[in-house]
Design brief:
Layout: H1 3-13, H2 24-31, H3 39-47, E1 75-77, H4 91-94, E2 110-113, E3 116-122, E4 129-132, H5 138-154
Length: 158
Amino acid sequence: MAPSSILAERLTAQALAGSPLSDPMAVAERLLAVQGQDPRGFRLAVRARTEGLTAADGLLRLAKRPRPAGLPPPRLLGAFDPVLLGWTSREDVLGRHTRLVTRNGVFHPFALVEGRAVAKWGWPRGKLKLEPLQRLSAGVVKALETDAAAVARFLERD
């Protein structure tokens, strides 16, 4: 299998590509578990795999909108997102950017673009801060800013 096919299948298996899942329980069932030690990270993992809910919804009400097949749109993922946990090799997603892993083995929140980690991110003083791991096009930065606005709405009652 071509590496791009393997990555696409992996992202689909992780519910980061293809149609969004129907609700938070479907996310937990698909992933078998979602890390809960970071409540915000848990909500971000659910948000990345569904459409149309906010933290205020208590992760219960969802609007179903089809997501294009193939690789997912640019997304900001949390530190405990399962896309990197439980895999022997993270090379397909991280490439040469192994600095996403801290000394204690915890991942920084990262931006996923076309199935690859392209930036670390944070939310100091309520504003998106990207730390690119490579040169990002203006279109990718705009897409990540758009997703950041959706994250802000999602976490508005956090």
